[in-house]
Predict the 3D structure of the following.
Amino acid sequence: MLAAAAAAAQSSPPAGPDAAVARARELRLWTQVPWLKLGHWRPSRWLGRPESDAEPEFFLAPDGAKNPRAELETEVRGLYAAQPAGALQHPRCRFPARAAWLESELGLKDADLPPADCSRFEDWRRRLDLSAVSLVFASAYMDNPSSMFGHAFLRLERSQPGEDRRLLDNTLNYAANTETDGGLAFAFKGLAGLYPGTYSVMPYYMRVEEYNNSENRDLWEYRLHLSSAEVTRLAQHAWELGPAKFPYYFLSRNCAYQLMPVLEAAAPRLSLLRGQPLIVAPAEATKAVSAVPGLVQSVRYRPAHGTVLVARRRLLTASERRAARAYADGDAARGDRLCTKLPPARRALVLDSAQDIVLYRSGYGPDVPDAVRAVEHAILMRRARVPDPPADLPPPDDNAPPDQGHDRHRLELGQGASSRGGFSELGWRAGYHELADRPQAYAPGQEFDGFSFRVREDERRDQAYVRDLKLIDILSAAPWDSWTRKPSWSVGTGLETAYELGRPPAQSLVYQNHVDAGLSLRLWPGALAYGLAGVQGGVGAALRDGYRAGGELRGGLAFDVTTSLRGLIDGVLTAQPFGDRTPADRARAALNWSWSKDFAWRAEAMMRGRYRESGVYASLYY
């Protein structure tokens, strides 16, 4: 009888806040995974205690960020609170996901609690009309330092069916509030976490306008398999995140880092983010969801406007390209003459391409000059007379879903021979990608080598030294197209061994910098040639007078031999009229064989002045 009475007591709802807190303590609810994920608590890097990096607005208890138990007990008592006066929200309405979980765990029903006016939240949830969720990845945007690795956000799908309604979905986005900062202040604050990061909900068509059209970034949509209860919890948690602020770090606490806890809060069964990594790339969010069996239902590709423009251009003959340019330049009469003998399907392709050019030049904003509107009107009037639908475009041969790319970190071991004898080498790269790496899922011509080093053991002299230490080395070699006209550029800074000086390598470390600009050409599918010119300079005790400065010419060819074999030829010619005038000309050839997505063998040869070397390297990406 005592056991039955105890069971009955456990099953009956707590009578009042004190009894509810006592039940929560008995069950140790603050240690449960769903509660910890709802508050974004994670073990601290040094002490292991649960901590949340959210600002105080995200908690009811004064020390809620570091005390999940205090927050839970405050929330439990808040369930029984009276409706606050004015515009203040009841705790059940301010944190509906937390309240729903606590009520379920404590066996509470609405009749057991005082009434709460949650009409604001309920109205918002009705308008959100959430039925499914997709993780969206926007490809890298090299013109903005905070987006050089891409961007991730959630698409909140509405229940209304139909492909034509997809743009009316909403999105949940996490980004830094940078206001009007730029330059060094922007870089410093972003790296130091001095910007507040906030979540926002806005229509999907605004994201498409910003990323697809204005910034010409491809979008990849990963539709997730979440239960109806998990979708409901995500809507509740999105409301909770409205006024919340988190410190934003460009390299770590960024969009990818902060979106994965949102998905975990909605579906506590998921463990997408392991630990507190120092660097997180947005593409890692796509890899995290793809690694969970059955979580990704489908992947949909939405090409950028610039991608569509180039793909459509490749379908045109030389004469058809001239016609499209004529229409886009406002010379409709010349365009008509060039299209006179074309069948309707080809004329439609020309006019669609002309419209692509106009939009690419003028953008998608509402403030379009009347002259541009007149050109566009002439194109659209002619296109309306051609009944053929837009031509199906082939998928880009140099594009793949971001989860199929190699991982960001690279650990490398090598063995080789040089003018100075044999050597062994250990290298490590924090990120991100080099032209010789497996190119799948990375933009053509994109190279970002940051926070990397190589340490070499000179076997003849039994001496170890730092081969190089790159702080940053970026190459943006977007293929030049007469319609898009994207220039190429490169910038780099870091330590490197100046073998051309003829001194012992351990005494030849120089801090080197360079800035270049030029053009790149797509020779054939999978082959890219580039040429750049710029300035370079270095400082170091190994140099005569301690410095050198001048200009440089850089060129190269990156090409695919097969889907798993990639070649690279790269060279630099220098002229250094200031300081140490020792020529620093160099050339490199590499052949990279991808054994798998995250493991490769590379053979490489290099010359620098009179110095020569060649080696074989094993690369592990993780």
